[in-house]
Amino acid sequence: MDYAIIKLGNKQHRVRDGETLVVDRLPTDEGKSFEPVVLLGDTKVTATVLAHGRGPKLLIGKYRKRTGYKRHNGFRAATSKVEIALGTGGARKAAAKAAPPKAAEPKPAVAEAPEVEAPQVEAPQIEAPQIEAPQIEATTVEAVEPVEASEAVASEAVATGDLPAGYSGMTVAQISAAAKEWGRPELEAALAHEQAGAARKGALAALESALAKEAG
Fold first, then answer.
1. Are the CB atoms for 36 and 21 separated by under 8 Å?
2. At residue 198, what are phi and psi to the nearest 5 degrees?
3. What is the rounded CA–CA span in Å between residue 48 and residue 55?
4. Whole-angstrom Cα distance, residue 29 to residue 32?
5. Which of 25, 109, 166, 180 is the most exposed place for a label (fewest CB within 10 A)?
6. pTM for the complete prediction?
7. Which tens digits make up the pLDDT trace of 35-85?
8. Among 38, 42, 44, residue whose Cα is nearest residue 1
């Protein structure tokens, strides 16, 4: 009898020597063998788990009429790939396939040739001639402070008239308030100073108004 009927995962399978099956996921690890239940046959059956995997993806759809309910789910069954061996010879063959390959024997080390260092030749050092740069003395030029025309005109106005003391530091508001108490010489000197340099409109208006009142 060259076949047997075995039980794997609550299912019956008719198997032959060297046949490969894909069944539901088995609890046995990859590379290990076990003996399934033989339902028919007088020979020994050995099953070796080659790999664990998953089956093709199945789409499951749900639909309810007149409600708009739609659901789609995917499912992949967990499977195991098993190789069947019949008889003791088949069992030894399956065990040999499941056994890991032997590691290759290390090759004898080859003696390495000694390294010969090349002689080091030092290159002669040539000193470059040093050239001194000529020193040039810088001539100092004295800066001449410019004299602004407005200051010259203002000083001339002070010399020719009676410019009130501290007038150059007074504001327009202070000039407007103090112009009422100044005399004609002071007002004319202040007006000449504003026309020559400062030219502040508020001060000019205040001085001209005070001069008009002085003349009247």
1. no
2. -70, -50
3. 19
4. 6
5. 109
6. 0.38
7. 999 999 888 999 999 999 999 999 999 999 999 999 999 999 999 999 999
8. 42
